[in-house]
Amino acid sequence: MSEQAHSQTGATEAPTAGAATDDETLIAVENLKTYYETDGLRSNDPVKAVDGVSFEIERGETLGLVGESGCGKTTLGRTLVRLETPTDGQVSFDGTDVSTLSGDDLKAWRQNAQIVFQDPESSMNDRLTVGKIIREPLDSYEWKTPRERRARVRELLDLVGLRSEHYYRYPHQFSGGQRQRIGIARALALNPDFVVLDEPTSALDVSVQAKILNLLEDLQDELGLTYLLIAHDLSVVRHACDRIAVMYLGNIMEIGDTERLFTDPANPYTRTLLSAIPTPDPTADRERIPLRGSPPSPQDPPSGCPFSTRCPMTVRPEEWDDLSEELWDRIDLFRTVLRERARGADTLGTRVRRTIGLDDPAADFEEIRESTFGDVTVPEAVAVEVDETERRLADGGEPAALAYLQDRFGSDCDTNLPAAHVVDDSGRTSRCHHHREDVAGLDEPTSARPDR
Ligand SMILES: Nc1ncnc2c1ncn2[C@@H]1O[C@H](COP(=O)(O)OP(=O)(O)OP(=O)(O)O)[C@@H](O)[C@H]1O
Predict the structure, then answer these.
(1) Which protein residues are within 6 Å of ligand 1, measured from CB?
(2) Is residue 449 a part of any domain in this protein?
(3) In this predicted model, what pLDDT tens digit does every residue of 243-279 receive, in sequence order?
(4) Cβ distance 118 to 202 under 8 Å?
(5) What is the residue with the minimal CA distance to atom 10 of ligand 1?
(6) How far is the CA of 116 from the centre of ligand 1 (A)?
(7) Range of the structural domain that residue 121 is part of
(8) Which residues form the ABC transporter domain (predicted)?
C-alpha cells in the first residue's frame, strides 16, 4: 500500500470489529484469545496460539486465513467452531455470543458450525462404512428417524459427487479426493451455516485440488454457506476467497479484499509473505524480501509488534535518520544475531556454565562484529553503541545486550502493539506503526518523516 493511498483514506484506526454488526454479518470476533496451558520444562507460560484477534465474516463469504506454520490458523478455526474454548474475548454467531456456551447449549449450537480437516483419513474411522461415517453427526443429534437419516446420507453423497452405492464401502477403498468428498458430506450433514475448511486440499494432487475447490464453491452457492478457508497455498486463497486475513504469531496483521491485498499489500509481513510466491515470469520485477531469524515462541512473543523481531521495515528512531539504509540493515542484523544466540543460550547447561564462569558470553563478540559490520563504514556514534553492547553482553549475557540495543535503536515497533489502521476505501486494515500519520510511510524515505 502506497503512502499516497494511506493519506487518501486517512489510514485511520479501525473501529473495533464487532461494534458494527449488521444483518450481513454472520460471525463477529472480538479480541479473541486462545491459549494452551503447558507444563514444559523450560517455561510454564501458556502458548498464546491466538492472541487477540478481531474481525467479522459476512454471510455467504469466504474469508481466507494464511500465515506461516504455527501462527495459530488451526487454533483460530477450531475456536470459531468451539472445538477449543476461548481464553478471552468474544465470538458472536448471528448476533449471539457463543464463546461461553457449554453443555447442551453448546451441542445444540455446534450444528451450525462445522469443520473439514486437511487429512480426511485421520479424521475418519476406517472400520466404519462411508454411510455410517456421514451419518455419525445425524445419529449423535438424533436427527429425525433412522430411515430419514439414511435418505439424508444418500442425498449428501449425491451432493458431493459420490454415488449412493458408495454407502456400504469403506474409506480406504476411495482416492484422496473422494475421501475429502466424504469429509465434506459429513460436515454438511446437519446443514450448517458456517464451515471451517482447514487446508482441505493440501493433501491432494494438484488436479484433484481444483475439483474439490470447485465443489466447495458450488456447495457454497447452492446452500448459502459461509467459509473460513485456511490454506498455506496463496494461489488457492487468491482464487477462492473474497477477503484474506494474514496471521502472524497469533495476531491478524492485515485483513481485507483479496485482490487489493495481493496487488498492493499494506503490511510488511504480507509483503514478505507475497514476495516469496514464485512468479511464472522470471523477468518479473519483484524482489524477494528475506525473512530474518526464526519465528519467536508463542510462549514468549515480542512485547511490541508481533512481527518486530523479523520485520525488514521497522520504524527508525529520528536520532538515526541519517544512517544509510545499509548500515541500518546491519544494525537490525546485529540485533537478530544476538536474539538467535539468546535462544541458543537459554539452556540449563549454558546457564550453569555461565554461573560458574566457564562460558564467556562475549567470547566471540569480535567475530560477530566483524561479520556484521566488517564491510561497512561505521560512524563513531554507532561504534560506541556496539562497544557498549559488548560490555553489556559480557556482564549480563544476551538479555542485557538486547535490552541495551532496544533502548538505543528500538522504536514503538519494539514496545507497542500497532493499532489496526484502515488502509484503503474497501475497509482493509493493517497493523503497522508505519500507517500512523506521525510516522514515515513504508514507501517514504525516512528523511521525509514529519517532526514528532
Ligand atoms: N493442543 C495444543 N497444546 C499446546 N500447544 C498447541 C496445541 N495445539 C497447537 N499448539 C501450538 O499453538 C501454536 C499454533 O498452532 P496451530 O496449529 O494453530 O498453527 P497453524 O498456523 O495452524 O499451523 P500449521 O499451518 O502448521 O497447521 C503452535 O505453537 C502450536 O505448537
Answers:
(1) 36, 47, 49, 67, 69-75, 232, 298
(2) no
(3) 999 999 999 999 999 999 999 999 999 999 999 877 6
(4) yes
(5) 49
(6) 17
(7) 3-275
(8) 27-274
